[in-house]
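Holo prediction. Input below; ligand is S-adenosylmethionine.
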Amino acid sequence: MACFSRRLPDSNDGSADVNGPALISKAMTLPRFELDNMKHHRPIRSFVKREGRMTRAQSQALEKLLPVYGVPDKTPVDFDRLFDRTAPRYLEIGFGMGTSLLVMAENHPENDYLGIEVHRPGVGKTLIELHQKALGNLKIINHDAIEILNGSIPEESLDGVYVFFPDPWQKKKHHKRRMVQDNFIHQIHRILKPGGVFHLATDWEDYAHHIMDVMTRSDGFTNTTGKRKYASRGDRPETKYERRGRRLGHVVRDLVFNKV
Ligand SMILES: C[S@@+](CC[C@H](N)C(=O)[O-])C[C@H]1O[C@@H](n2cnc3c(N)ncnc32)[C@H](O)[C@@H]1O
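Structure of the complex:
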């Protein structure tokens, strides 16, 4: 079964697109404006693929369990068919090692969950636990969430979307890589049911301000706690990055919105 698990190129910062020898020699003969064009057509990714160490168990899980718990590579995703029932549905984007996603799926068997993550060791680890816990209400996509949102998630199909501790891309020149941008919010709005929840959390103060700015200027959402107010974490499970942030003395901010 083909599923959303295509291997991404070794460098996903877009540099792989223009650094091949053929393109380099071609680039040497191109006029300046065409070079600028090539540069500007590189996709700006919200991640850089650094696999780190992948254990043998994680790699086996990707090979053997992703075909079982992954999502068939057909678009758009048919949730009723995928979970063999109609239930409230939640999506977590960038679930890392799966800490929050697994807890939510285990604690709420009445809901269905989909997780999207590019980091293969994290996907492998999550698959192992998902299999051990025999959770029937959790499915995984190992792919760039931006591409999946754009093409594969049907309109008004989700009750909630979670983005917990997205990569902060601290340097100003990297801010364009931040996942939470106007286009991203537009897609989240499209896939949420009316009244659906969009819950984000970050331990980086200026990213929290940035998210608040983006969400406040979008007229498709209301802040559940009042204009420009941060929310309580509610029953959001603690994540790995959150623990790390707290150890560094960072303040964690939750932001919770409803689709109007
Ligand atoms: C800072 S980590 C946080 C992980 C987890 N949510 C946590 O709190 O422990 C951000 C995660 O988002 C993932 N990520 C970033 N951009 C992504 C994208 N476009 N599609 C899917 N995952 C993405 C990264 O691979 C990384 O695992």
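The two ends are 38 Å apart (CA to CA). That is the main takeaway for now.
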